Amino acid sequence: MRQVLLRIPIPGTEQVLTLYGYGAMMCLGCLAAILVAAHMAKRQKQPPDVVYNIALLCFFGGILGARLFFVVQYGGQFPRLLDLVKIWEGGLTFYGGFLLAVLSVASYLVATGRPILYWLDILAPGVALGEGFGRMGCFLNGCCYGDVCPTGWGLAWPVGSIPWQHYAEQFLASAGWPSAPGALAVLGMTPAQPAGAAAGALAGSLAAAWHAPAIYPAQLLSLLNAVLLTLVLYTMWRRKHRHGQIIFSLILLYGISRFLLEILRADEAAVYLLGLPTLLEALGMHATAARLPGMTISQNVAIGMAVAGVVGLVLLARSRRPTLQADYVPPAPAPEDSPEPKRGKRRER
User: Fold this and answer.
1) What is the rounded distance in angstroms from the CA atom of residue 70 to the CA atom of residue 321?
2) Could you tell me which of 11, 211, 254, 312 has the fewest CB atoms within 10 Å of its CB?
3) Is residue 144 classed as helix, strand or coil in its secondary structure?
4) How far apart are CA 269 and CA 134, in angstroms?
5) Taking 80 as the threshold, does the pLDDT of residue 264 lie above it?
6) CA–CA separation, 139 vs 220, rounded Å?
7) pLDDT higher for 89 or 214?
8) Spatial distance between the Cα atoms of 16 and 120, rounded to a whole number of angstroms
9) Most confident among 34-38, 74-78, 110-114 (mean pLDDT)
10) Are 34 and 122 in contact (CB under 8 A)?
């Protein structure tokens, strides 16, 4: 874990420019996604300027969606309004960013008269690669951590890290301390409040009685998953039969893999089941609702993504529209002084 990569003093002032690991990885992920998508567009003899315009929309739309989705999940972590904008400290979700970015891109493509599925296929491998950089940022930040690992390949996180605080709170709760961040603040062992002399004895007692458990490296597993998705999508892209196969494959494969990865994570409460507990509670069936197994909100969204991916691939396989065939090349943008746009053509195989 390395939440802060660099601290650069500003000459002539007492201010320090802080470079956060999470923010740095997000920027590198955006850059990598743009470069990959531009490369794919050039191979299709399409203008890379479209990718750059889309990247701008994805950057703002994706960050906004990722933050909104996180706030919906963890609204209690933002006691002040200013905390909502501190994205460099973490707190973004792939789902929210992906969904709002897709909507933004689709709106742009419709407005400019470009085929949506064709261009989403071009963008898909870069999106998967960018997700990998984001997961590296999660590892540096300490968020999106794993559950306790019963085998010997888990990671033990340092004192004061986000996973350490989570499991320290569990230990304190089992020992009779209040299960809240305030308990760690009393010990003076949170990053925001360094240990003082008054808390030294309590901190020493905690260190002697408890050691942070080794947990699954969920962030690194998610990074590996993103790299594999990128390779699979790129391979499929070179052999696809329909426009839209790549983006729907990304939706399907990410939904499945994310559902499985969530089993190894411990940062989300497993209290959702496709809305069924809430529905049963409203119907007065409290006992039945209590017996239902729980899933995280991300697992619920993953199920929806997997279903959408399957439906999309089936519809594509049944479609006979010429513009969805892989050998169809969209028309190039007509010059401003041209009275008619050029017609699309098929590539020679």
Assistant:
1) 39
2) 11
3) coil
4) 22
5) yes
6) 7
7) 214
8) 41
9) 34-38
10) no
Residue-wise burial string across 196-207, b where 16 or more C-beta atoms lie within 10 A, e elsewhere = eeebeeebeebe
Beta bridge partners of 19: 6
Say yes or no to pLDDT of 39 above 70: yes
CA atoms within 13 A on the CB side of 197: 0
Q: Which of 94, 176, 184 lies closest to 135, judged by CA?
A: 94
Q: State whether residue 69 is helix, strand or coil.
A: helix
* In contact, 40 and 55? CB cutoff 8 Å: no
- Amino acid 42 reads K
Tokens representing 127 are 């999106």
In whole angstroms, give the CA distance from residue 52 to residue 112.
14
Residue type, 63: I
> Which residue shows structure tokens 């994205």?
87
CA-wise closest residue to 240 among 125, 121, 127: 121
Joined tokens for residue 329: 């090349």
Q: Provide the pLDDT for residue 178.
A: 55
Amino acid identity of 223?
A: L
